[in-house]
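pls ignore typos typing on phone
aspartic acid + seq
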Amino acid sequence: MSLIVQKYGGSSVADAESIKRVARRIVDTKRAGHQVVVVVSAMGDTTDDLLDLAGQITAAPPSREMDILLSSGERMSMALLAMAIHELGESAQSFTGSQAGMITDAIHGKARIIEVSPLRVQESLDAGHVGIVAGFQGMSRESRDITTMGRGGSDTTAVALAAALHADACEIYTDVDGVFTADPRVVKTARKIDEISSDEMLEMAAAGTKVLHLRSVEYARRFGVKLHVRSSFSELEGTWVIPDPKDTVKIQEGEPLEQPIISGVSHDASEGKLTITGVPDVPGKAAEIFNLIAEGAINIDMIVQDVSMATKTTNISFTLPGEDGERAQEMLNAHKDSIGFESMDFVPQVGKVSLIGGGMRNHPGVSARFFTALRDAGINIGLISTSEIRVSVITDVELLDRAVAAIHTAFGLDSDEEATVYAGTGR
Ligand code: ASP
Ligand code: MG
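k done
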């Protein structure tokens, strides 16, 4: 028998009719021979309404009370859903986050999961019930208080339960057919993506794509949970989000479940840096510059533009293969007047050092430690660029090895033994 975790978002359980519809779907899954665990969000806009209500009482609600208030939204939907399932002739039991063993830290409003021990949910399944769990909430062992995990956190509850229960599938039901190539509410011609890697989904979620809670994607990537994002309003296949086995780890007893995983430090000394100064601060200049660069088939990596200032000009810097630097300058110089920039500065070789790992975005401490390590090593930073799974900076090429070592040590990556290099210079 397979075990399926299904998560239904607020718009899927917005009113009594919707709750009945969702119950039907759950019962169908159960009757098809599966064990089913359901995670629910609060009905419709309940969470916003509760926030509003608190706002009418006080401008500064104590965070402990806020979490108790907000957690009640999910309690309503889980109990009503259990009733609707009973009405269809199957049995269901609902559980709050703390009953379901969602143990978090004590940070109200953005608690992180430390441990998941869903013993009661497992017992309920073994006894033949559908287990229903309230989304986005847990309990801190330290403070013994109810916590919530932040807006949209129910996705993360579902993924965490799927990982802890070794579920065969984790279905995230929402009000669109899956993950789209752009927000289908904005771009009518957006296409549904059938399958996407966890890495790409992570970048999309970090860049604002809202179908999935960022933390749920991180969690699923780390513990190898396959997600199926689909609509609760249709029977269509949705989007599969597939983790890469090389990124996944096993749940370790006693290790907090949500923490950044640093994979390693990469560096590159093959790039140069070109800075174009005094570029008119009007639309279209970056397009002119990068069209020229593209015509020259020059691959660029990091791009940085200064803040627009009162001077009405700006500086644009980018990195490019060192050997392409001369050519890029010639091409740009040939269009100096039409682009209207003042001058160029080319550094033929710079160092790029990058820290790679999952979960950086939700752990501001990672960048803090990264920049502190560089400071302590006396290394000045040229450009900075970040992504969900990477922070990169440009340094003087002479300082590159020192930067790599400093960051490596700062993140506890140093091993006790010396690595063997059998041959080659690493160039
Ligand atoms: N009800 C909470 C919210 O609206 C959690 C969730 O929906 O995932 O943010
Ligand atoms: Mg919601």
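The chain has a mean pLDDT of 93. The pocket of aspartic acid (ligand 1) is lined by residues 9-10, 41-42, 47, 73, 135-136, 151-154 (CB under 6 Å). more later
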